[in-house]
Amino acid sequence: MNLANWLHHTGLVRPDAPALRRGEVLHATYSTFAQRSCAVGDCLRSRFGIRRGDRVALFAKNSAEYLEVLYGALWIGAIIVPINHKLHPREAAWIIGNAEARLVFTDDGRIFTSLSDVVADCREIGLFTEELVGGLGASSRTTYSAPVAVEDDEVAWLFYTSGTTGRPKGVMTTHKNLRMMATSYALDVDTVSCRDHVLYAAPMSHGAGLYNFQFVRAGACHVIPDSQGFDAAEIEKLARALGSLVFFAAPTMIMRLLKHAQSSGYRGEGIRTIVYGGGPMYLADINNALDLFGPRFAQIYGQGESPMTITAMPRDIVADAEHPRAEQRRASVGTAQSCVEVRVVDQAMNERPVGEVGEVVVRGDTVMKGYWQNEAATAETLVEGWLKTGDLGSMDEDGFLTLTDRSKDVIISGGTNIYPREVEEALLTNEKVFEVSVVGSPHPEWGEEVVAFVVLNEGTACSTEELDAWCKTQIASFKKPKRYIFVPELPKNSYGKVLKTSLREQARA
Q: pTM for the complete prediction?
């Protein structure tokens, strides 16, 4: 079944419901949203020759038009290739070429000068140019055709991994994968209501965009902030004005929102749910968030290869303070979502005992079809029906999964495994520390030594000796950093993830 059927259905059932807003201003009702998306699909097919299975790339900032083009491509059975607008055009061009995209939509249609050198017959179109607006001329009609029928295993969304360790790989996500992801959200993460206002403060090319589907089906209103990105003061304004605000945020974004709240006195009024994921949320940070905003936080853990759907922890579990292991649960990433099985295994794929660390593997209806034109990587990652995540963690007796680190990030010092996250958690309990990232650096005697990159809170001072003494009260001596490097900020990629590869290079230098 074509995912675009959900928009078609809502356009018929709730035609006058507000669908798209630019800030507080209404851009389209659901009837108009569906009509415009159908018109975009007609335009793609008649004017540009796009057919079922062709790839259509989106390399643009968040906008209402982004969603209209996304659904327009899906409407005719084309495959969306979302590209984070923060990437360099050269990086985006590589993805476009690898995906063999026929079209790429950008904000103004003038990002690339020679796309033909990258991939034959690919054309760049501006989201706000006459080429597209002309194709939307039929959007005033009152009737429109249904989306084309597709098979469940046809690819809908070709997502390219962040590529921090090399060229990104194209993850083939099917209509069924995304339908199961959206269905599981309501079962495992949070309720979905037609009264919700879904805010896109994170890039639509990633998790925020993936989460549009369940809200389209429910008839909720999609809000694109005027900034087209994350601005804490703007979020407060929209939350107060619209109410029932729901959005996905990386932990670094939540930290910025909390920093704003501490200075402004804002306490989350108008926000219903913030779903966090995409990086480690440390215990000290989520405790602080709950103190300021109350039970407004739900957590998900997933990967592009199983989008947003490995484990989850709904608001009541995140906020629970009564359970005997409440803090341990809050520090975890929750339990397996209803659409998947999750295990922790050793190198031979044998399940590890409760409490012991191994690699996290997952299988179920949300796991990718494979990597685009990369059979070797697919065979290495999909083993015996299980997706090998590359993440290390342990499972408790109640099924709560606690992540330690990526397997490549584990530090081996003196023959002993040290998990950076454990050291980071300890340092973050110090009130002077704002952010921290721990990496391993080569050492002639121990193999590797623990190095901590530390960002202090504004207006505070802290010495290496002070942090060393603090760590001694929190963790075993052999785990504490041998070096502390104070930095004004941590290097991050376009999704807000800390670039540990860059930090390792700095540590060696």
A: 0.84
